[in-house]
Amino acid sequence: MKPHVAPRAVAALMILGTTLLAGCTAPEKPKAVTSSAPPVTEAPAPVAKSFPKYEALRAELIAALEAEMPDISWSVDKPATLAKLKDGRCMLYPQTMKSSADVVEPSNRFAHIFAAGDPVLTRHGFPAFDGTDAVPGGWVVARSTDAAGATLTIESKSPAYLRISVPVDSPTCIADEIPPG
Question: How far apart are CA 114 and CA 60, in angstroms?
């Protein structure tokens, strides 16, 4: 005698199996933690040396993000600039980039950003992202800081922004020092 299984039970088991399989294969959402920068072990470099290095990082990361999430494009929000901080340090800010849409949900709360961005970061001497920072106001923020104290930040609350801040050695700290192109 063959056991009889109700068609509804078979359907329920198939749905349960599919749900469990999908749960096992979806990218894990990054943990919400407060990032901590590694100690700065390199002195600030001149603007002429720093600018191309961090512009290359910015360009490669944007290309990786657009490849990972092709429905979201990035454009220049603010041009590169230099600024003197209150403590006297000079900071280089390469071009700030802005997304065409929010990235939080399309990226599975930044999981896809980390998948695309971590290899780029490591190629440029940065540690991989280690999660998103717990910040108030609905922002989702991820940061990575290299040995020179340069910090790359991706923050999103519709739209998203990619910002880089780099301590530099500059006698004048004026934007004229930024190489063209």
Answer: 14
Contacts of 114 (CB under 8 A, 6+ apart): 30, 128, 129, 142
Strands in 64-159 per DSSP E: 74-78, 81-84, 90-93, 96-99, 133-134, 140-145, 151-156
138, 104 in Cβ contact below 8 A?
A: no
Every domain of the chain and the residues it spans: 28-177
Separation of alpha carbons 22 and 18, rounded Å:
6
Q: Which residue has the tokens 């000079």?
A: 90
Q: Which amino acid is at 95?
A: Q
Q: How many CA atoms lie within 13 A of 8 on its CB side?
A: 0
Prediction pTM value? 0.79
| pLDDT tens sequence across 36-85 | 567 788 999 999 999 999 999 999 999 999 999 999 999 999 999 999 99
Report how far residue 99's alpha carbon sits from residue 112's, in angstroms, rounded to the nearest whole number. 15
Domain 28-177 CATH assignment equals 3.40.50.2300? no
d(CA 118, CA 131): 11
